């Protein structure tokens, strides 16, 4: 009986400890408290590393539910990275607070790079058209308008990538697969996007966007959007997701000089 009592107390203590730790973590994430890198969600550290590959996180502050402000070392101008989780996307951006950024003006879309393979179900020309249209819709309310390169105030370039593609013929096959992270993520994405039982490809997609001052060639804004998605989406849904990603990446643009 004494052994049973001790075992019960140990189990209760373990459960209580987990609950208390969870409550503390939730409080930290919503309070603006400084926290170490080890406590950050992996999606946050991955986004920061992708945005500034040669930098390292030295401090982090949770500024809201899913929002973080990270201090980074390794770049003289870009020392703060902002990360935000929006629905199924992770957004990260940074800028040089000392740079003079126009508050209105014109821009030229100068370059689209990608890692799409020949025969990809995402057609590069269609992808570029979606990006161009999304930029027009997102920047017009901010009073930035497209212009030819020689006359533009800003130059905008975008890099798009697809990684970790997982081919799936039937969601029912999930029960016969090993419980690996990539497969689990693919199935969760498929279910969240209501694709039904028959799907083909789940992938991890990312967009990286740079806004550069045309005259000085100074980077004014550097942003990233990352999300898992079903490759076989309708054209309307592809555009909706592209527009949503660009809107979030430029949500705080233009920055005001500090």
Name the shape in a single word: globular
Q: Could you say which structural class the secondary elements and strand pairing correspond to?
A: alpha+beta
How many structural domains can be distinguished in the coordinates? Answer: 2
Distance between the termini: 67 Å
Determine the strand fraction and express it as a percent band. Answer: 25-35%
Question: Mean of the pLDDT scores?
Answer: 79
CATH top level assignment of the largest domain: Alpha Beta
- The CATH topology of the largest domain: Double Stranded RNA Binding Domain
Low-confidence runs: 1-31
User: Main β-sheet, in a few words?
Assistant: 10 strands, mixed
Round the Cα radius of gyration to an integer and report it: 22 Å
> How do the strands of the widest beta sheet line up side by side?
1-2-3-4-5-10-9-8-6-7
| Residues in helix, % | 25-40%
Number of helices: 5
Task: Please provide the count of β strands.
Answer: 10
Multimeric organization:
single chain
Describe the structure.
The chain folds into 2 domains: 85 residues, no CATH class; 145 residues, Double Stranded RNA Binding Domain, CATH 3.30.160. It is globular and about 50 Å long. The chain has 5 helices and 10 strands. Helix 3 crosses helix 5. Strands 1-2-3-4-5-10-9-8-6-7 form a 10-stranded mixed β-sheet, with helices on both faces. Helices cover 31% and strands 32% of the residues. Strand 2 and strand 3 form a beta hairpin. It is an alpha+beta fold.
